[in-house]
């Protein structure tokens, strides 16, 4: 075998060894064909014969409805609804959250809330508890929150709570505010003297109030707040229109230059000003010393000539406040 043939054979042997070491190149692997997924069965349509559900959670504000027998009136006004009313005196909003959670609010179509009267001691606390309630009621299609009745006895305490109710409800698209306060102002005969609790006739009025909320015919539903309209930006670089008279406001006109020289704030005071200031301080101190030596101490109270020393006025403290001076019968006042 010639030398050239041996060289070619060695080259072929080396190439084969390298190819064997590297191995075959990547092959296209077909993706496994997955079995077609079965689509979930569609949810059954709602039964038109099943009643809708209403939940009312309140404190003593709406407790007059069942107490006065008006719950039957509410159910009669909503014959196609399953009505649940849970109202209890002294209930705060945190307790109302627990009551609503125990009843599973996702089962209800409408929830009416009358809480906040027992949280007026802290608007921050009420705001936090109202956020908890609205979070719990997220799955409820419609939520109505009643404002508090701002009677003269409770106006100062309840007005801030009503502001929180409107603020929080505006941020929740499924929550509307029912102005129970305005209803009470227009129907004061529905409440007892405290302006908060319902009379027997007021219980029937409240039942109609809630029924009209569910039917969305309630005239006391507050409209959603409108966003402020944005004004068109003004082009400050365009300048006045041709032919317009240009006037300068008095406050914008430059002040006339003062005739006196203007001193810089950081300018050094002149020696003359320093001398005058020191002299004034020395004279004032000397005058105070001389006056204190010449001044005589005054008596504690005046002693009229020809009479006994007059006793100073006495005062009595009533409830922490100083009362009127005391006088004894037959004596003249100390100071005339």
What would your notes on this structure say?
It is built from nine helices and seven strands, in the order αβααβαβαβαβαααββ. By secondary structure, the protein is α/β, with parallel strands linked by helices. The chain has a five-stranded parallel β-sheet with strand order 2-1-3-4-5, sandwiched between helices. A two-stranded antiparallel ribbon has the order 6-7. Helix 4 runs parallel beside helix 5.
Q: Any key phrases for this structure?
A:
336 residues; alpha/beta; Rossmann fold; five-stranded parallel sheet; two-stranded antiparallel ribbon; 9 helices; 7 strands; 35% helix; disordered C terminus
Brief summary:
By secondary structure, this protein is of the alpha/beta class.
Q: If you average the pLDDT, what whole number results? A: 72
Distance between the termini: 154 Å
**Can you identify the CATH class of the domain at 52-214?**
Alpha Beta
Form type = flat
Question: How many strands appear in the DSSP assignment?
Answer: 7
Rg for CA atoms: 45 Å
The biggest beta sheet is recorded as: 5 strands, parallel
How do the strands of the widest beta sheet line up side by side? 2-1-3-4-5
List the helices and strands and how they pair.
Blueprint: H1 3-22, E1 52-58, H2 64-67, H3 71-77, E2 81-87, H4 93-102, E3 110-114, H5 123-136, E4 142-146, H6 155-170, E5 175-178, H7 180-186, H8 200-214, H9 271-294, E6 315-318, E7 321-325
Parallel strand pairs: 1-2, 1-3, 3-4, 4-5
Antiparallel strand pairs: 6-7
Helix pairs in contact: 3-8, 4-5, 5-6
